[in-house]
Design goal:
Elements: E1 8-10, E2 25-27, E3 36-38, E4 47-55, E5 70-75, E6 81-86, E7 90-95, E8 112-113, E9 118-120, E10 126-131, E11 144-149, E12 154-158, E13 164-168, E14 170-171, E15 177-178, E16 182-185, E17 191-195, E18 199-204, E19 213-216, E20 221-227, E21 230-235, E22 239-245, E23 251-258, E24 264-269, E25 275-280, E26 285-290, E27 299-302, E28 313-315, E29 321-324, E30 330-335, E31 357-360, E32 366-371, E33 377-382, H1 390-397, H2 404-421, E34 434-439
Parallel strand pairs: 4-8
Antiparallel strand pairs: 1-4, 2-3, 4-34, 5-6, 6-7, 7-9, 10-11, 11-12, 12-13, 14-15, 16-17, 17-18, 18-19, 20-21, 21-22, 22-23, 24-25, 25-26, 26-27, 28-29, 29-30, 30-31, 32-33, 33-34
Length: 447
């Protein structure tokens, strides 16, 4: 069902003009040739306009612990579609509406309700996923993605029909197949790097199967960030390891970075390749590192991360904006021209929230954000696992056995304390499992 009026979500903190002065180069998704254009201005209206949405709800016959919340979303490299991973519901591919390929939008635009064009119903928990870096919809053989999941090898899927193309299997010393915890392509897209509990395994894209090169590591590889020949490996032991990867796929250790208080869950290099941004579970800090001087972080930014869930962040193609969600449902934006988030650390401001803009987008955890590669469009995903309040569970089971006096007494107890537990996130009933596209460019007719 379509919604007649779009939702304008204004930022909480009003600030000065936010015109994007950092311009870069990208590929126009409306053409099949290599036509180049400047990247658009982002957050110039200080307002997010909802464009499209898709949501998932729990089946009436599903068990209580089967909850279809989003666990991540990523735009394809050519910007034509967005991949989202839904807990207990596999992978969904959603196309960008054709009218958003070019031009601008106004506040009277009808919100589109998105349907998945591809749905891969994978069983088991999906650990990691990524697009092929050279993905281009006009070249079908490049349209694919990788997933790694529980009790399964690394698998490559076709983005046109959702079929399984091939698998890359890693085996341990006793010839048992191991599931990878993380996976990524190298920059050229010729190799697949898979992270395991004690090793990194490199597969040749053209040779699926069990042929791989192996490099031992000391702790599980929870996430990757790749930049040219530099590989950053995050771990659940709170450290980040830097490796130099040569053309033959050999790894040379550079050093380790220490600073997080929880396991590292997501990392990304800035477009200039000099700085690395990292986030961890149950850690409210985003750490900015200069890989040339990696002994201590350059800067510390604050966001809400109260659970072990992976909370994604993204960096704009121009390198000016850092965008992150949080378990409080808030979207935070740091503008390099105003807070200089990739500069040196001011120790007096460590505990201060130096964010440029705040947007209250979701009533549930905003666990993933992804900026479109060449359009002023932001994709956000929401949802998390909700524990059921044990007080209400016991009350429901015994409801038929409680007389009027006992019911009144129980209500007094609930009013006094148990209801307050619902304010706690782990017992919250405010579930929102949605994928939303937002316009983050100029909106000229806002009043």
């Amino acid at each position: 069902m379509e919604v007649d009026k779009p939702i304008n979500t204004d930022c909480i903190e009003d600030d000065t003009d936010c015109t994007d002065s950092g311009l870069g180069i990208s590929v126009d998704i409306t053409s099949n040739d290599n036509t180049l254009h400047e990247l658009p201005a982002l957050f110039s209206s200080k307002t997010l306009l909802e464009l499209c949405c898709s949501s998932w709800s729990q089946s009436a016959n599903a068990k209580v612990d089967v909850q279809p919340y989003l666990r991540g979303c990523k735009w394809s490299p050519d910007g034509t579609c967005c991949m989202s991973v839904v807990n207990n519901d596999g992978v969904h591919i959603t196309e960008l509406p054709r009218d958003l390929y070019s031009g601008s939008v106004d506040s009277s635009r009808t919100i589109d309700v998105l349907d998945s064009v591809i749905h891969v119903k994978e069983s088991g928990l999906i650990y990691d996923f990524c697009w092929y870096p050279g993905m281009n919809s006009s070249i079908p053989e490049t349209c694919c993605w990788l997933t790694t999941r529980q009790n399964a090898p690394v698998q490559m899927w076709d983005a046109f029909d959702g079929s399984l193309r091939c698998s890359y299997r890693g085996f341990n010393a006793v010839d048992e197949m191991e599931p990878a915890l993380s996976v990524t392509f190298n920059i050229e897209g010729t190799r697949i790097i898979a992270g395991y509990k004690k090793v990194l395994r490199t597969f040749d894209v053209d040779r699926p199967g069990r042929d791989f090169a192996e490099h031992k590591i000391n702790s599980p590889a929870s996430c990757f960030a790749m930049n040219s020949n530099l590989l950053a490996v995050g771990s659940w032991n709170t450290t980040i390891s830097l490796f130099n990867v040569n053309e033959l796929g050999n790894y040379k250790s550079i050093g380790k970075m220490h600073g997080h208080s929880g396991g590292v869950t997501h990392m990304k290099f800035t477009p200039d390749g000099i700085r690395l941004v990292s986030g961890a579970r149950k850690d409210h800090r985003l750490l900015i590192w200069d890989i040339r001087y990696y002994r201590r972080p350059l800067n510390i930014l604050s966001r809400a991360v109260d659970t072990n869930q992976r909370i994604y962040f993204d960096i704009s193609p121009c390198g000016k904006y850092l965008v992150s969600g949080g378990t409080d449902g808030m979207l935070k934006v740091w503008d390099a021209n105003k807070v200089n988030w990739h500069s040196s650390l001011d120790v007096t401001d460590v505990d201060k929230d130096n964010v440029t803009y705040k947007f209250p987008l979701h009533k549930d955890c905003c666990n993933s954000v992804s900026i479109h590669p060449c359009r002023p469009i932001l994709a956000t995903g929401s949802g998390q696992y909700h524990l059921k309040d044990p007080v209400s569970t016991v009350s429901d089971e015994n409801e038929t056995q409680i007389d009027a006096d006992e019911e009144n007494y129980r209500q007094d107890l609930v009013t006094g304390g148990a209801v307050m537990n619902n304010l706690d996130m782990k017992y919250s009933s405010e579930a929102e499992n949605s994928l939303v596209f937002w316009w983050i460019g100029e909106v000229g007719d806002l009043t």
